[in-house]
Write a structure and sequence with these properties.
- The complex is a heterodimer of chains A (111) and B (115).
- Chain A has 111 residues and is mainly beta.
- Helix content of chain A is 0%, strand content 45%.
- A 5-stranded mixed sheet of chain A has the order 1-9-8-3-4, with no helix packed on it. In chain A, strands 2-7-6-5 form a 4-stranded antiparallel sheet, with no helix packed on it.
- Chain B is mainly β.
- Helices cover 0% and strands 51% of the residues of chain B.
- Chain B has strands at residues 4-7, 10-13, 19-25, 31-37, 44-50, 53-57, 65-68, 75-79, 88-95, 104-106, 110-114.
- In chain B, strands 2, 4, 5, 6, 9, 10 and 11 form a 7-stranded mixed sheet that branches. In chain B, strands 1-3-8-7 form a 4-stranded antiparallel sheet, with no helix packed on it.
- The chains are: A mainly beta (111), B mainly beta (115).
- The A-B interface holds A 31-32, 36, 38, 42-46, 49, 87, 91-93, 95-103 and B 31, 33, 35, 42-45, 48, 50, 55-56, 89, 91, 93, 95, 98-101, 103-109.
């Protein structure tokens, strides 16, 4: 699977925007960029995914660099409930169906 | 209402005993996965199951593990003779299609404690 690099941890204050970066310099043209998160004591939860264009949904926005070698997950207003480990995962035609989880970024949100 | 329900939420078993973990999807989908997460470690892929057959399995998924869909609805993971190192959270997930362009729905997990 194509590799991604994320910071181990980040911090934010409640109601502030959060930008979670992910580097994927070896991404191929057919790789989709997926983000999942895992709240404490819960299973992973889908957040968002995209291919080339920026994407928005009710949970977050995904900004994809023009060369696709990096992306940023944007939480527009962090809440305490957003404290979780966020995983950036690449999925493509060359990969099998499974999701491969790395160590992700642990986001702490302070009131 | 959760997309995937797992039972039990917590199971304690003695080393060497067999355990069966269950996963019940709300909808009748074809793609299922089992993952595990040892405390403090990464979420690890175990096996994928498509159309009632194993499509891929990891090195972790050895002969002690098996998966079934016994009644066309429930999806089970069996560990024949549990070891202490099998203690972990086990997550079931389902997807509607090829996971590269679809979202996976994970259950809340079963915490397995082997003593």
């Amino acid at each position: 699977d194509a590799k991604t690099t994320q910071p181990n941890s980040m911090e934010s204050n409640e109601e502030e925007p959060v930008h979670l970066p992910c580097n994927h310099s070896t991404i191929s043209g057919t790789d989709y960029i997926h983000w999942y998160r895992q709240l404490p004591s819960q299973g992973p939860e889908y957040v968002i995914h995209g291919l080339t264009s920026n994407v928005n949904n009710r949970m977050a926005s995904l900004a994809i660099a023009e060369d696709r070698k990096s992306s940023t997950l944007i939480l527009h207003r962090a809440t305490l409930r957003d404290a979780a480990v966020y995983y950036c995962i690449l999925r493509g035609l060359d990969n099998t169906d499974k999701l491969i989880f790395g160590t992700g970024t642990r986001l702490q949100v302070f009131p | 209402e959760p997309e995937v329900t797992q039972t039990p939420s917590h199971q304690v078993t003695q080393m060497g005993q067999e355990v069966i973990l269950r996963c019940v999807p709300i909808s009748n989908h074809l793609y299922f996965y089992w993952y595990r997460q040892i405390l403090g470690q990464k979420v690890e892929f175990l096996v994928s199951f498509y159309n009632n057959e194993i499509s891929e399995k990891s090195e972790i998924f050895d002969d002690q593990f098996s998966v079934e869909r016994p009644d066309g609805s429930n999806f089970t993971l069996k560990i024949r003779s549990t070891k202490l190192e099998d203690s972990a959270m086990y997550f079931c997930a389902r997807v509607t299609g090829m996971v590269k362009n679809t979202e996976a729905f994970f259950g809340q997990g079963t915490r397995l404690t082997v003593v």
